[in-house]
Amino acid sequence: PADVKLFGKWTFDDIEVKDISLEDYIAVKAKSAVFVPHTAGRYQKKRFRKAQCPIIERLTCSLMMHGRNNGKKLMASRIVAHAFEIIHLLTDQNPLQVAVDAIINSGPREDATRIGSAGVVRRQAVDISPLRRVNQAIWLLTTGAREAAFRNVKTIAECLADELINAAKGSSNSYAIKKKDEIERVAKANRQILRPTACRLIAPGFYSVRQGRHDMQQQRHPHTSPALK
């Protein structure tokens, strides 16, 4: 409904998801409009159902990390409400739009995974799925706010507001943006492309490394190379 506003103040109308790949995974459309980020929904029962959870509720839940904060959803909701007030005062924008922009900017697009077994392990760059980009962005934003507020006179709400504003601008003052750049830099260093000479195409998209090695051997020593069994 058009008249549903988050905390009775922030409208869900005209919230724009500027990254087309994340449109289906950031729930801010009219269907996901809520008064408070507390729907008591069962979003973990089925794979991908969490994508339908209102994005501000996901941010709220992510604040409840570390044992001493588990289950304190009212406290987390209050922190988000205060942070949104601060964002509006500092930027004069709808804090919902700032939060959505921050999540879009903070999700890494590429990461490095470990490939191999039995002691021989190497890193390989891989693309990150849209849902994981959103998950990681939320985690990085809340972790940055939590670390900034620890042993600091600034409240967690102020730190969360700063983190969201900086991330929405793409500023390197943001913990999430710094971590995202670091993850992507490591992934870029671990990019490895299979050389066409080293592998032979057996079916569309499939390579046989063993057959490729045999082909290279045949090129070097055409008469001495044993037949591939």
From TrEMBL:
<dbReference type="InterPro" id="IPR023798">
    <property type="entry name" value="Ribosomal_uS7_dom"/>
</dbReference>
<dbReference type="GO" id="GO:0003723">
    <property type="term" value="F:RNA binding"/>
</dbReference>
<feature type="domain" description="Small ribosomal subunit protein uS7">
    <location>
        <begin position="29"/>
        <end position="191"/>
    </location>
</feature>
<dbReference type="GO" id="GO:0015935">
    <property type="term" value="C:small ribosomal subunit"/>
</dbReference>
<dbReference type="Pfam" id="PF00177">
    <property type="entry name" value="Ribosomal_S7"/>
</dbReference>
<comment type="similarity">
    <text>Belongs to the universal ribosomal protein uS7 family.</text>
</comment>
<keyword id="KW-0687">Ribonucleoprotein</keyword>
<dbReference type="GO" id="GO:0003735">
    <property type="term" value="F:structural constituent of ribosome"/>
</dbReference>
<keyword id="KW-0689">Ribosomal protein</keyword>
<dbReference type="GO" id="GO:0006412">
    <property type="term" value="P:translation"/>
</dbReference>
<dbReference type="InterPro" id="IPR036823">
    <property type="entry name" value="Ribosomal_uS7_dom_sf"/>
</dbReference>
<dbReference type="InterPro" id="IPR005716">
    <property type="entry name" value="Ribosomal_uS7_euk/arc"/>
</dbReference>
<dbReference type="InterPro" id="IPR020606">
    <property type="entry name" value="Ribosomal_uS7_CS"/>
</dbReference>
<dbReference type="InterPro" id="IPR000235">
    <property type="entry name" value="Ribosomal_uS7"/>
</dbReference>
<protein>
    <recommendedName>
        <fullName>Small ribosomal subunit protein uS7 domain-containing protein</fullName>
    </recommendedName>
</protein>
